[in-house]
Design goal:
Number of helices: 5
Number of domains: 2
Largest sheet: 3 strands, mixed
Order of helices and strands: EEEHHHHHEEEEEEEE
Strand order of the largest sheet: 1-3-2
Shape: elongated
Strand content: 15-25%
Length: about 180
């Protein structure tokens, strides 16, 4: 298998006593500790151990980038989604990462959440939790204003659209609460 030299240190978290682990579908392997190896196939919870992905995804080694990217898609935590928003993989590395996702598993869809972490859906009603100056419209949307029938911004989990005072505006999800 091509890839990293098989050291005894985990390529993701740096823990000693790592074992070579394949990175499908390419002929590559990276050394992983028991915890990281179990995370490649099992469920990943938001645990302090997985903060190692913050560094691993920026590795110079494509196989390590691929594993970190796949695992970040499975961690259900805001820090992981934020990191995925800024990660750049070369096109061939991105294709490798997507090709090796588990059968039927796809990269996580964008999930819009309000300030309390409640999942928002198309058409929901939300309330503003603070006064928001609306750029270009010359007014301030007041705290407590109900925004009915919101639209979700498809490529940004931090934004929704809605009508306030007859104007269609973009609102950051951190400033709304689902009704």
């Amino acid at each position: 298998m091509k890839g990293l030299s098989m050291t005894s240190q985990c390529a993701l978290c740096g823990t000693p006593d790592a074992q070579p682990t394949a990175v499908p579908p390419m002929d590559a392997a990276v050394p992983l500790c028991a915890i990281c190896r179990s995370g490649t196939s099992g469920a990943i919870t938001d645990d302090p151990h997985w903060r190692c992905l913050n560094d691993a995804v920026w590795s110079a080694e494509p196989a390590v980038q691929v594993l970190a990217w796949r695992m970040l898609h499975r961690v259900d935590a805001g820090w992981a989604r934020d990191l995925l928003d800024i990660v750049y993989l070369e096109p061939e590395v991105q294709a490798w990462a997507e090709a090796g996702m588990a059968e039927g598993e796809q990269p996580a869809d964008i999930i819009h959440r309000d300030s309390n972490g409640t999942v928002l859906a198309q058409g929901d009603t939300v309330h503003l939790i603070k006064d928001l100056p609306v750029k270009g419209a010359g007014f301030t949307a007041k705290r407590g204003t109900a925004v009915r029938g919101i639209s979700l911004v498809a490529d940004n989990a931090g934004q929704i659209e809605g009508r306030v005072a007859g104007q269609r505006i973009v609102i950051l999800t951190e400033f709304v609460k689902k009704s």
